[in-house]
Design a protein that fits this description.
2 domains; 6-stranded mixed beta sheet; alpha+beta
Length: 172
Amino acid sequence: MTERAWMRRALRAVFAPLAVAVALAGCLNPFAPEEGGVSAGLWEPQVTIGGMLRNFQTAYTLRDSFRYADVIAEEFVFQFFDASQNRYDQWYSDTELRTTGALLRSFERLDLRWGPIPAAIDTFSQPDTTVEFTVNFTLTAGDFSPIDGFARFQTRAGEDGRFRIVQWRDDY
């Protein structure tokens, strides 16, 4: 083997694995959070009603419509008083998700605060049970004055064991 052929072989032996390593490293993003990393600590597993309410609050604060959708049951109903018609009206999950998504995109800052949540509600985790309760809230959107109100929720754990809101009656 000539000296030149030996040099080529040696360079290939060194640079081929190096080129593969560089190519694979180019596919990695050193700034991307690990699976279950940084954001995992923000969200609760929703196996209690309190965990679901904290996820609801965090979804508003972070303006995260995907996470908000996870606290809404498929059969969700939102009831509200329509002052112009002087009666209660309602909408379903598809309208709720579109409406809330628009709200979350419309403000740079949203701050939702729940009033005191009784311990029996906060830690409730029994499956196959619908629980109805009322909680007061304060919502501040952008620079507008805070809105205080009461939300009457019916919640239930789904087949996956995660609590979701089945019905929300706005008692503003």
